[in-house]
Specification:
Blueprint (H helix, E strand, L loop, with lengths): L26 H8 L24 H12 L8 E5 L6 H14 L3 E6 L12 H12 L2 H12 L8 H15 L10 E5 L7 H17 L5 E6 L3 H7 L8 E5 L7 H18 L9 H11 L3 H11 L7 H9 L1 H4 L2 H4 L2 H14 L6 H14 L11 H8 L4 H8 L6 E6 L2 E7 L2 H8 L1 H4 L7 H20 L25 H18 L7 H8 L6 H5 L6 E5 H7 L5 H4 E3 L3 H5 L10 E4 L5 E6 L8 E5 L6 E3 L7 H19 L4 H14 L1
Parallel strand pairs: 1-4, 1-5, 2-3, 3-4
Antiparallel strand pairs: 6-7, 8-12, 9-10, 10-11, 11-12, 11-13
Helix pairs in contact: 1-5, 2-3, 4-5, 4-6, 5-6, 7-8, 9-10, 9-11, 10-11, 16-17, 21-22, 21-23
């Protein structure tokens, strides 16, 4: 800090150390970081505390991986794939390997994918790797900074192009990059990357790079043994480069699991001042048998027993031990069934008056993840709490009953988003065969549909004079400095409407007549106007999914295709072959069109651009009195709009409109 300084004196000094990954003066690298998955790095606070092989477990496997990574044996294959069923501890192995290789200066990059936590965007994988390479080889930063500033679109380019421009070519331009030769890149949870095709593409890019020697790295992939990944790894051009290790469920792990449980429960006992023998040898044996070799089961057990808000560790332990009577022999051979029994036990501990709220929080968290990623991730709890009209204290209290499977992340001094310890819990919560009455796509779905629709109508009724007004139950102070590109009210409104359509499109359960009646009364005409300040340009609704979910009597009252040629004539000039749709009924209906170049797909595009939607204020299906009141006005409009058309086309239009009347 003061190299070369001498004869210096400081009086009451204050030193501020700012240790971040931000690189001053390099706007290109700042953009690269923004397009990376920082939360997926092995040392990210988003994953703290990370899964880990505790108490010297799996020493032989870890040594095998380290020897492979540092190339102790000549002719070693540069691609390592470890596969195993869920919960056997693959992420813990990957984490320990990343830490060990980082200490040996042999870790080039690492990414730990997570589906429930939305760390699985395939378009951000190579940007994330490139940024980590800069941290290991700073001269690369100058090259990448120039590349990105010259062509910022490279950050959103196709995966092969990203790999070439952000990794391959920059490495060739920096002589210091030679030190990265043989370093390892770790990709854990590979099966959780969004999209099977993307997983294929990434494997092909990696294999091509190894075969053509365009990059100097070793690649370490960990995943479940999904069929499509097995096929990709068995391909003739992959097999010669691949070293495979299986991580099976095995009773050989029982001793290590016992050691882990004894250490963890000893610490819990000391914390609560319990006698050393508070968990007996027989009870330890039962816990090991219940785990069935699943490390995720063991780690969840310890969090459950150590829950500070429970009736104490002994009470929690007895609840876990009670599962031994339910876990019959057929269940013991099915790891999913064993885990499901434990997840049932966890959810059963939620008080009955809190359970509906907790399930709705889980469902909404799942619904908004795609909409609020990246720099908007910190607004997830803000959105969910306000859709449900919960104060932040109530929201936090509802989540506090699930400390074994999730926790709330704080960002800039306020609750930001929910983090799950493992993907298996949300997989359980979304599968009705596994979670039964606790499935979020069951009664919870229908209750939440109606609640969100009523929340939308409440916002509409408060927003008089065409100005959006939202009464927030909680608003984090960070929104006081919200950017000019969007407003918190419009952003919340956009999320709420997106959730409303998403819930109604979900085919897991048909919409009831009472919910359909509430949806029919929604003022759809407000949507483009109020969502315009959200920072999003449009919203897409799946026509078939929504319509098929509605009761037959409500289909045409809520969403339908227009057969009126005038509506097609009024479409925006820049749209080509499109369908015309009507959402709702007059005077609060909305006329919009399908997405451009999407003629075969029935997707409704609700654009927030004034040029791309029309208010549907006069209904074509009216009572006799209503027809009489608008008859003369409608006839005048028809004459004005159709006077330029040939007689034969005018006749078709009039017959079409007469049929609708």
């Amino acid at each position: 800090m003061f190299d070369g300084a001498h004869d210096m004196a400081f009086y009451h000094p204050t030193f501020v150390v700012n240790n971040t990954n931000h690189m001053p003066g390099k706007q290109g690298l700042d953009k690269l970081l923004a397009y990376s998955m920082r939360g997926a790095f092995h040392d990210s606070s988003d994953r703290w505390p990370p899964p880990s092989c505790h108490y010297n477990s799996r020493q032989e496997l870890r040594k095998t991986i380290t020897d492979w990574a540092i190339g102790h044996e000549a002719g070693q294959k540069p691609l390592l794939w470890i596969h195993g069923p869920f919960g056997v501890g693959k992420s813990a192995v990957a984490q320990n390997s990343a830490e060990a290789l980082a200490a040996l200066m042999k870790l080039a990059a690492s990414l730990f994918f997570s589906r429930p936590n939305r760390r699985n965007d395939p378009n951000r994988i190579f940007t994330s790797i490139a940024y980590q390479l800069v941290l290991q080889c700073p001269p690369l930063g100058d090259v990448l900074d120039r590349v990105i500033m010259h062509n910022p679109t490279i950050l959103t380019a196709a995966l092969p192009h990203q790999f070439q421009e952000l990794i391959v070519i920059p490495l060739l331009q920096v002589t210091q990059a030679a030190k990265l030769d043989g370093w390892t890149i770790i990709l854990d949870g590979f099966d959780e990357i969004d999209g099977i095709e993307a997983q294929y593409d990434i494997i092909n890019i990696i294999v091509t790079s190894i075969r053509d020697r365009t990059t100097p790295f070793r690649w370490f992939i960990l995943s479940r043994p999904e069929a499509h990944i097995q096929r990709a790894m068995a391909a003739t051009d992959v097999a010669p480069l691949l070293h495979t290790l299986d991580l099976p469920l095995s009773p050989e792990n029982d001793h290590e699991i016992l050691t882990f449980l004894m250490k963890e429960l000893q610490e819990i006992g000391e914390k609560h001042k319990l006698p050393q023998s508070w968990c007996t040898e027989v009870e330890f044996a039962i816990l090991v048998k219940l785990a069935g070799g699943l490390w995720i089961y063991v780690s969840t057990i310890t969090r459950f027993i150590g829950d500070a808000k429970s009736f104490g560790p002994q009470s929690q332990l007895h609840l876990v031990l009670s599962l031994a009577q339910k876990q019959t022999r057929p269940l013991a051979t099915n790891p999913l069934a064993a885990m499901d029994l434990f997840y049932n036990l966890i959810v059963e501990q939620i008080p009955s008056h809190v359970l509906p709220t907790a399930l709705k929080i889980l469902l909404l968290q799942h619904m908004i993840m795609n909409k609020f990623d990246g720099n908007k991730r910190g607004l997830r709890i803000f959105v969910v709490a306000n859709i449900l009209r919960l104060r932040i204290e109530v929201f936090s209290a509802a989540c506090s009953f699930l400390p074994s499977v999730l926790f709330i992340v704080n960002d800039q001094g306020h609750p930001s988003h929910i983090q799950f310890y493992h993907a298996s819990f949300m997989e359980y919560a979304q599968n009705p065969q596994r979670s039964g009455k606790f499935c979020i796509w069951g009664d919870c779905l229908e209750d939440l549909r109606l609640e969100v629709i009523e929340r939308v109508s409440s916002v509409h009724s408060c927003s008089s004079g065409g100005l959006l007004k939202v009464n927030f139950t909680w608003r984090p102070s960070v929104l006081d400095d919200e950017p000019k590109s969007w407003s918190s009210s419009a952003l919340f409104y956009y999320a709420m409407i997106s959730v409303m359509f998403g819930l109604c499109q979900r085919r897991a359960r048909a919409i009831t007549p009472s919910t359909a009646a509430a949806l029919q009364n929604v003022a759809f005409s407000y949507i483009p106007r109020f969502a315009r300040g959200s920072g999003y340009p449009n919203m897409v609704v799946e026509y078939d999914s929504l319509r098929d979910n509605l009761p037959p009597d409500f289909c045409d009252k809520i969403v339908r295709k227009s057969t009126n040629p005038l509506h097609l004539r009024d479409k925006p000039a820049h749209l080509d072959k499109v369908h015309t749709f009507i959402l709702g009924t007059a005077p609060n209906g909305l006329l919009c069109w399908s997405r451009d170049n999407d003629f075969t797909e029935d997707t409704i595009n609700i654009s927030f651009d004034d040029r791309e939607y029309l208010l549907y204020e006069t209904e074509t299906s009216m009572t006799p009195d209503e027809k009489k009141n608008v008859k003369s006005k409608r006839a005048w409009i028809r004459r004005r709009q159709c006077r330029w058309l040939p007689k034969w086309l005018r006749a078709i239009i009039f017959r079409s409109q007469k049929g609708h009347r």
